[in-house]
Specification:
Strand content: 15-25%
CATH architecture of the largest domain: 3-Layer(aba) Sandwich
Strand order of the largest sheet: 4-3-5-6-7-13
Distance between the termini: 48 Å
CATH topology of the largest domain: Rossmann fold
CATH class of the largest domain: Alpha Beta
Order of helices and strands: HEEEHEHHEHEEHEHEHEHEHEHEE
Helix content: 25-40%
Number of strands: 14
Radius of gyration: 22 Å
């Protein structure tokens, strides 16, 4: 009876938090809830476009101009090629982590499937000594692409270049960053929703109550959104959490810092510490390693992560540290939807917010509805096709986009790799 009542209360607060996080957002049919900006800065409200501005030159093969947007600082007077022969530039900070590798592989798949020319820089941070993002963007723009796709790079250093490219008719699209003037589409998960989903899992695992919970909060905007929702849920009257510890993580040496903070909390609270929060896999794994080093197992306390990847899944499979779950992001789906948006805007000549167009008028496309909580009950095994984790996958649909090109398979993870 108590558990049924708690479930009802949990559902109520979760819906309340989601409502607050999406307040004021218009959600086009079929696109899911619209996300907040996920990057490092907030974007000022768009201002009306100046009258009399010259349209971009679209005299390029079978290109034709699309109608201008009805207001806003992002023009939709784009290069449109009805023959479908687009040239796409792709920018990525590095290939150092699973999500970036999966983005890059799917970008190559998409261009191959669609017959689009691809130019790219996948090590932006390592290729230039100064202003790497800016130099890489300028290099791509000089090669006259029809569209530029950006994964994970900070937008503020190139905000003016995005507008410049947009005025030339070049479509600028982002995955996992933030929306800004000149950017037509940002594909990302709503970080407030991510925080709520993960915290609901945590509280369900704890039975709605805890002695002590710790929160190690990230300084990045996307982390702040996840952290704030999680803390609000834990501190609400819906749950019975006796005490909460908090620590604001700093950018310098943060993994050592998080390990040390966890050690201090363990010294202070011992086995009364039931759970410690970090808003991404790497942070959660460091915390779990500190717990394990002190002799604690998942039967005593635990932590979780967000994003999903080989390292997180390997620890969940092994059970060697109390890192018990991770919310998996649909990285391939994010890339695919971005490229679908490019096709609709720059091949079909549609506009954001049009009937049948997947790109909302705001430009923000949310994918949190495709995220999946992974724990020991559904953790993928080495060699598994990563697509099979997500709701979009249908094994019978052999012609679907996710069954074309190279498929990312789960691999084992060795510490230090």
């Amino acid at each position: 009876m108590k558990k049924r009542l708690w479930n009802k209360l949990m559902a109520g607060i979760l819906m309340g938090i989601l409502a607050v996080s999406m307040a004021g957002c218009s959600v086009p049919e079929g696109t899911g809830p619209e996300p907040d900006n996920s990057g490092q800065t907030e974007t000022p409200a768009a201002q009306p476009e100046e009258e009399g501005e010259e349209p971009a030159n679209t005299d390029n093969g079978d290109a034709k101009p699309a109608a201008p947007a009805a207001g806003g600082n992002t023009s939709e007077d784009l290069i449109v090629k009805t023959d479908g022969k687009l040239k796409v530039a792709y920018l990525l900070d590095s290939l150092a982590n699973d999500s970036s590798q999966r983005h890059w592989q799917q970008v190559q798949n998409e261009c191959e499937m669609r017959g689009w020319e691809l130019i790219s820089e996948t090590n932006v941070s390592g290729n230039y000594e100064a202003d790497p993002t800016r130099q890489a963007f300028q290099n791509m723009m000089a090669q006259e692409p029809d569209a530029i796709v950006i994964s994970y790079l900070d937008i503020p250093p190139i905000a003016d270049l995005c507008v410049e490219a947009n005025k030339k008719g070049i479509g600028v699209y982002c995955i996992g960053t933030d929306i800004s003037d000149g950017i037509l589409m940002n594909v990302n998960s709503n970080n407030s929703v991510i925080g709520a989903k993960v915290m609901a899992y945590v509280m369900d695992r704890l039975g709605g109550e805890a002695n002590v919970m710790g929160f190690q909060n990230l300084w990045m905007t996307r982390g702040i959104r996840r952290d704030e929702v999680a803390m609000a849920m834990a501190g609400s009257k819906t749950y019975n959490v006796a005490a909460m510890e908090t620590h604001e993580v700093t950018p310098e040496g943060f993994t050592d810092e998080m390990y040390s903070v966890t050690e201090n909390w363990l010294t202070k609270h011992g086995s009364d510490l039931d759970f410690v929060w970090a808003c991404w896999d790497g942070g959660g794994i460091v915390i779990a390693q500190a717990m394990a080093a002190a002799g604690y197992t998942a039967e005593d306390m635990f932590t979780v992560g967000m994003d999903g990847g080989n390292q997180a899944w390997a620890y969940i499979r092994s059970g060697e540290i109390p890192f018990v779950a991770s919310l998996a992001e649909p990285f391939e789906y994010q890339v695919h939807q971005c490229f679908e948006g490019i096709h609709q805007l720059q091949v079909e000549g549609m506009h954001r917010g049009d009937a049948g167009c997947i790109v909302p008028r705001s430009g923000e496309y949310s994918t949190d509805h495709m995220t999946v909580m992974i724990d020991k009950n559904n953790v993928p095994q080495v060699g598994d096709n990563v697509h099979t984790l997500f709701p979009y996958y249908d094994a019978k649909d052999t012609k679907a986009w996710y069954n074309q090109g190279s498929v990312y398979t789960v691999s084992d993870y060795a510490e230090g790799s």
